[in-house]
Each structure stands twice: as structure tokens, then as C-alpha cells.
Protein: Phosphomannomutase
Amino acid sequence: MTTASTAPDLSAIVKAYDVRGVVPDQWDERTARALGAAVADVLVLEAGHPAGGSPDTGTGAGAARRLVVGHDMRPSSPGLVEAFAAGAQDRGVDVVVVGLCSTDGLYYASGVMDAPGAMFTASHNPAQYNGIKLCRAGARPVSLETGLAAVRDHAAASLAGDGVGVVDDRGARTDEDVLRGYGEHLRGLVDLSGSRPLRVVVDAGNGMAGLTVPAVLEEAAGLPALPLDVRPLYFELDGTFPNHEANPLEPANLVDLQRAVVEQGADIGLAFDGDADRCFVVDERGEAVSPSAVTALVALREIARERAADPDAPVTVIHNLITSQVVPELVTGAGATAVRTRVGHSFIKEQMATTGAVFGGEHSAHYYFAAFWGADTGMLAAMHVLAALGATDQPLSELVADYAPYAASGEINSTVHDVPAAVERVRQVFAARGAGFDELDGMTVTAPVGDGDEADGPAPGAGPGGRAWWFNLRASNTEPLLRLNVEAVDAATLAAVRDEVLALVRADA
Structure:
């Protein structure tokens, strides 16, 4: 019998929004089985869904006791999935294993089956990591506050005690391929059949886009051909990531795509992360397109789609607070409501649900759609950009110029000895100048209206939000880091504000 002293420390791998850790050092198949049983108890049975019913119905009693499970291409994923599924079956829950898929493919399965889901992936983390992204039925998010803590505690009790309890009516296991349905659903939301021919270079980073891009944008899943000439980079599924990390947020991981776009005379480049739920865009010059610009472009398309269906319907778009100010400016200019929220997918998804928003975007390249159960899907965002580009003769660089009028720093991390003291230094300096403050997430500071002298830049009024600049300073939850994002009316103003803030932040480094 395992004792509490020898049981793994689940608090080290159960994070705010998912499970993530090194395999087998921090967790293994035995842990996965306990987590499967715990997810069955908390997200299926304790959620008010009794066991029982037919496993082959999409809704109703059969769906009420079902759990859908998918995984990425990491070497440890298949074994962890088998153990997890067995643990859920032990508790009387039927498990549908959809096999290799992207995270948004798992959300699709959760949505159409109306069942809780578990996606085995560590996204862009190195090969030795693995994890689980969980959702409730209909792809609704799960966090520590909404079920993940209870999953952790149930699993820890099993591991420290007599193991998973097996019910008499053990659940069934079925396998189902949802790839074609996923592709059909996305194509039903964005029609690319009338696009002008586009040459598209895609860097899958040896991640799950190597499976989903051929299925959705090409004919691998049996769907009709589109006017797209897809040029693949690193489509071989390989969870050891032999070419580069599957994290396009790091500029070094975009270099191969940028070079290929220019060398091949492509119209656009797309880069996906390991589990293919995020997508980054490169224009025909090989220049990265800001995710804020993509957010603005897609937001206007979604607003237009809603207006076409009902011209008088209220339309809401969500954006996080480090997204460019151009997003709320364009959204409100289109007659819709822009709602600003904290950084993090759980906050975006919560606001999507409570406001009835049609779309939400983050500067990290997560894009959320009401038409996709409020969940994030990089593929659908990419299709919107392709559709917009395919409907014009403009090159992508010209198309997105209006969506990126301001200079932005991107996220700059600083390691500091005393985070509160560093923040206070910044607060005192800018408060003395009459700057605006809010603390929705960290500290956001905005230039005083009518006074742009602090940054030695042009007078405010034409800048983001009618001000010359703004910046956000957020502390990491896990490390002694401060994260800085700055946006300004021009590059000179940006540099002045950025450098002053960093000097204050790093004064004790």
C-alpha cells in the first residue's frame, strides 16, 4: 500500500488551469489512473450526471456519463491515456478515446458529444513534459476554483490510500475518429472555397498541426480541395521536437518559417504551437503579424457576420488588457461592445460565457469563438485571416496595416529581488506626473491626457486610447519576475517609456 509520504506531490503538477509536469519524474501512468478516476468523480458523476445510459448517443443519459479523451504526439501520451481511461472506467464512466488530435480538436469532440474532455498535452513545453487540459461538457473551462482542486484532492487521496475504487458496473471504452468532423465544422464557419489562390507555408513544429492542417486546409480527411497551395514545414509528428521548440511566441522559432515564406514567394506563413491551439501569422515579407492585429481583423469579421444575421443584435468582443488598444477602438467603431479582461484563458472563457461575446482574443495568439463553444482554436483564426487575404488583391502586409497603427514592445521579463518594491518605485514616479492607474491585472499605467512630455513623444490624442502611451506591469505567479508590455503612438515614445520603466524595475537587480 502506498503511503502519503511516498505518494507524488500533485500540488506540483496541478496548476491553475491544467496538469503539467515531467514524466516520469513528477507523474506517471499510476498517477494518470488516479487522475482519470478523480476526473470521472468530479467532472462527470459529482457534476450531477448519474452513471448509466447508452454510449452511442450524442446527448442525454449516455452523454451524461461519458468522458472524451485525446492526446498529442508526445512519446508518453499513449501510455498515460490508457491509464487515465482505465481509471475513469473504474468509476463507472464510459470513455471515448479520440486518439491523436489538437487541443481544439478535443474541444470540438467535447462540444459535439456534450461530454467533459481531457486532452493530454504539454503544449509547447519540452519533450519530457506532459499534461492534461480539462474541460466540462460543451468545452467549458475548468480551473482550480471550478473543479481542478477537487480533482487533485481526489487523486491524492487515492494515491495515498488503497488506490482507485472499482465500481461493479465498470465503464466501457470506445475509440472514435473525429478529425473529419472537426474539419467539416471549421469549414462550415469560414468558407475558403471562393478565395483567390494562395501559397501558404505552414510550420507545424512537429506538433499536432501536422495532422490538422492537411485535414482542414487540404484533402487528407476527404474534404474537397481548396484554392490553397500548402507548403509544409516539420509536419512529421515528433514529440521530441527535433527541429525547434513548438512555441511560436519565441521569435527564434519563427525564423525557419520567415525564411521559407520569402524564399518560396508565399502569400502568408502560419506557425502553430505543439498542441495546435495557437496560431501565429507571418506576412509575405517574412514579418511577424501581431496577434493583436489578428484579433482586430477577426473581431471585425465576426461582428460583420453577426450584423448580417441580425442588424440590431448587440455584439460583444473580449480582449485581454495587454492586447493593443486598436482592438477596442475598432470594435467600438464598428458599433459593438469591447470588454477588457485579465490575461489568461479561463478569464476570457468566463467572460465569453457571461457576456455572450461572439469572439475573444489574446496577445498570446489564443482566439476564442462563440461558434466554437466559446473555446479557443488557432485553426479557425488562421482560416479567417486566409479568407480576408483571399478576398483581396492586397498583400498581407498592406491588409493588416490598419490593424497595427501603434508601436508595441511585446512582453519583456525582468528578474527582480523584491517585486512589490519594484512596482512601488514605478507607481511613485508615474503617479507624481498624474498618470492614470488601474489594477485589473497587475498595474496598468496610462499617460496623462493632454501631457505627453514624460515620454518626449508627440502630444497625445492620436495614440492608443487617445493617449501617447500605456504600459502594464504584471508579476509572475511562480517566479520573481515582472512582465512589462508597452504600447505607444510611435517607436520613439515607446523606447522612452520602456527604457524608463525597465530602469526603475531593475534598479535593485
